[in-house]
Known about the structure:
The structure holds 2 protein chains of 2 kinds.
Chain A: H1 9-13, H2 16-25, H3 38-46, H4 50-72, H5 75-92, H6 102-123, E1 132-134, E2 139-142, H7 151-154, H8 159-169, H9 173-184, H10 189-196, H11 200-219
Antiparallel strand pairs in A: 1-2
Helix pairs in contact in A: 3-4, 4-5, 4-6, 5-6, 6-10, 9-11, 10-11
Chain B: H1 3-7, H2 10-15, H3 20-32, H4 34-50, H5 63-78, E1 86-95, E2 104-111, E3 144-152, E4 155-164, E5 172-178, E6 196-203, E7 211-213, E8 217-221, E9 244-251, H6 267-278, E10 281-284, H7 286-292, H8 309-312, E11 319-325, E12 328-333
Parallel strand pairs in B: 1-7, 10-12
Antiparallel strand pairs in B: 1-4, 2-9, 3-4, 5-6, 9-10, 11-12
Helix pairs in contact in B: 3-4
Amino acid sequence: MGDATPTSGRMEASGSSGADNLEKREPLTAESPAGISDRLLVRRCQRGDVEAFNLLVQRYEHVVFNFAFRLAGNYDDANDIAQEAFVRAFTAIGSFRGDAAISSWIFRITTNVFLDERKRRRTRQHLSLDDVVELEESSVARQIEDPAPKPEEVVIGHERASMIGEAIQSLPDFQRTMIVLYHVEHKAYDEIAVIMDLPIGTVKSRLNRARVALKDKLSGIRELF
Amino acid sequence: MNCDRIQNLYTDLYEDTLNPRIKQLAMLHLGVCSTCRLDYERFQEAMRLLDEPVQQVAVPAAFRSQVLARVAIEANQSSKLPGWRSWLQLRIPVLRLAGVGAAVMAILAAAAVDLSTPTPNANQGDIVARIPAPPSVSGYSGVFQKLSASTQGDKTYHNFTIELPTGISSARVNAYVLQDARALTDESALDDKTSATLAWSDNEPLTSNVQVNIPVAVVTSAPAGSTLPFLVCSTVAGSGESVRKDLAFVPLDNSRPALAIQRGANLYLTLQTVSASQGINIVVDDAALKANARAPYAAPSGVDGSSPLSALLAGQTHLAAIQISTGTYAVVGQ
């Protein structure tokens, strides 16, 4: 992940008018997005070019969706979070200054969407999908079909992975986010600092706390050791 | 170095980023404290477990098109382009249960709209003679356009075609199951876990001809002759200060005998009773709900749950009934 290779150094280094002319000669198509830099896509998105945004989504949908999947713990919520993240990215892209990589910026939005949603859910009572609704004369099991695998089912594909996945899912939201960013998404400390809007020292201390918490949860699972 | 302090150093120890003096102190402590030594060994094991490879999941096939549909809405709204409309069709399957009494599903829709520029509804059905619309009713402008059901195997699929008026920026649909056909005495009942079960809640793409398969409930057991009322509500919500709400009652079983109209009940309960008794779909638009939903309803004498809507609404100066499609009637505010 990260910025794709620019199509040419001249394009990136040229003045605005020259870059504009070059951009106009280079059609943006879904068939040949690899050679288009993130910077160019962002610039076009900032002008309201939906096709450029289409290519940006195409470029990052896999990583963003998987990130959302690890955070949310299920396919449907991941879909909601990832969609909302891209919509927010589109509406806010005018304010993206390019100080950080666009990937970090999108991860930051995705993280905020996840944490916002979790906060919203905590304030409202929701029933578990597995609940059985007890009626006076019968019972109704609510069944919301989710054919997609759960994170713990696909992490490694066997029992161990399931246990590790469940342990991660049981962490508080913020700690889970830290663990997923570092250990699943393989983000470096400085990138996590950008995504989480925290100083690097705070990232390290909070990640350590999350790891210690996860260690305590994993230690209780004998089968893992 | 003490036991409390050393836990804070686990990551630095593991990554070997401690300065030599602190590292020496930490190692000395681990050498003499078996509890911390074992704890740190578990930390190392946990870190090794986290290094195991992670399998990726596939992005849903329609993901990008759904994102772009929402983005188009955002772009459209921000540019104030007129005439935007969106269609959402929901399919809600519920297990068919023979011999069980009437059940009712309801859809509650709330959407942020530009109320200053209402858009006439192109799909308005003909007004039937049985339920004549007062001359002042210009038409139904609710979000529900068509409600239908089909059976596949042991499941009945309920299809909701929703047209969102101009200016809606987003939509949320909530499906509820109520434990009693008469549980929806007030909108707040939907937030009450003892009477309403949130069975499904999701944002949906607002593109044309999209069908979403939403399994809401499966009956696992029901004694013979029992009644099993359902009420499934769906909310479409938008952002902003203006919130639009629409409600739909959909009976799941037509065999329930007519219920008496409770005098003093509000519009929710009255229409729910009619829907369950007659086996008809009833939708209520935003204006009707705003003006009448919570107020006590004075039913004319001599009418019950089997009476036509026009009889029920006789004398209600702010309400009128029209048919918008086969088996679906709208109560509209004037």
